[in-house]
Amino acid sequence: MEQTTGPGYGARAAGFAVPPALWAFLFLLGALFLGAYAVGQAVGPVAPGMHGPGITGEAPARDGETPMEHGGGH
């Protein structure tokens, strides 16, 4: 009787390949995010003077000065 062995670890690892369509999708997704980031950096902030409620100055508020009104209805 002849002894044969099945495919070993190397054959199994070589058989696992990422489909080209997945690589294309990941590339396009990355290009989309990089393009959106580049446009956002070029345009700048949408509303540079806009701040949260209760903040009037240019300096950011410290933790003790942050208003805690969240509209809970109480």
From TrEMBL:
What protein is this chain from?
A: Secreted protein
Q: Which UniProt keywords apply?
A: Membrane, Transmembrane, Transmembrane helix
Positions of region (Disordered): 51-74
Ranges annotated as spanning the membrane: 20-40
Question: Residue ranges under compositional bias (Basic and acidic residues)?
Answer: 60-74
